[in-house]
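Long-time lurker, finally posting.

We've been working with SMP-30/gluconolactonase/LRE family protein (Novosphingobium olei) and I want a structural starting point before designing mutants. I don't trust myself to interpret raw outputs, so I'm hoping someone here can both generate the structure tokens and explain anything notable. Sequence follows.
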Amino acid sequence: MSNWKVIERAGVRDVLGEGALWCARDNAFYWVDILAPALNRLALSTMQVERWDMPEPLGWVVVHADGGLVGGFRSGIAPITVDPELVVGPRKAIEAHLPGNRMNDGKTDATGAIWCGTMDMGETQASGSLYRIGPQGDMSIIDIGYIVPNGPTFSPCNRWLYHTDSGRRTIYRFALEDGRAQKDGVFAVFDEDDGFPDGMTTDADGFVWIAHWDGGRISRYSPDGVRVRTIELPARRITNIAFAGENHDRMFVTSASIGLDATEFDGALFEVDCGTAGLATIPYPGPVT
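Top reply, 14 upvotes:
Generated this for you. Predicted structure of SMP-30/gluconolactonase/LRE family protein:
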């Protein structure tokens, strides 16, 4: 018996599914289709999916403490509301001096700060950076020189940040203290047979789950960077992972169909029975514009 199932969406498949997010307030799992571009929502009460077209590529969403979401668009960050109707607010520019860049992945830590990465749309230039947007809205550049930034995810104690450069098949670990991050070294490196490390999440035991782009699976790593478990999936380009539900024990996994002669599974959303639970999602409390 398989330990995964496909969430049915009447034949809809994502071009580039990403940005996996659990929102307890809405009892819903959100994720983005970066290049469609679109925002998706799965209501856990009904298991029905809604989908909204977005005005430009959308790399990630986080929960805002005052209601709605915050989205990382190609041109910057903006508030998003979908109830009772879709409203996307004005976008606050992040890299106006780099028009070829876009947002790719982002998440909040235990303080509500947003950590997010930018990248070259063509995936050829190492023009991407890792940013931190603090709970009061202050922004700082944490690291530079990324080809395809992914992750990020955090240890349960919020002392460690894990962040990936997929183009280099490398996951880095950063030490966190008072909103600052110091690169601590390499957490893990993927072999060619592994594909490329993509989105990540952390479970309640501090183990890191990593999606395999061009690897067709997800893997669980111990806090010291040792792979301890792998779950195979029928999609080839697995992109992101998040725990959801009241007890954070339902795992959802996104995938992509871009660049493939797609099967019925490429670009699907999966629910995976992994036997462990994750961490609560912390809303971002700060200003957006």
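Before you design anything, note these points.
The mean pLDDT is 97.
The radius of gyration is 17 Å.
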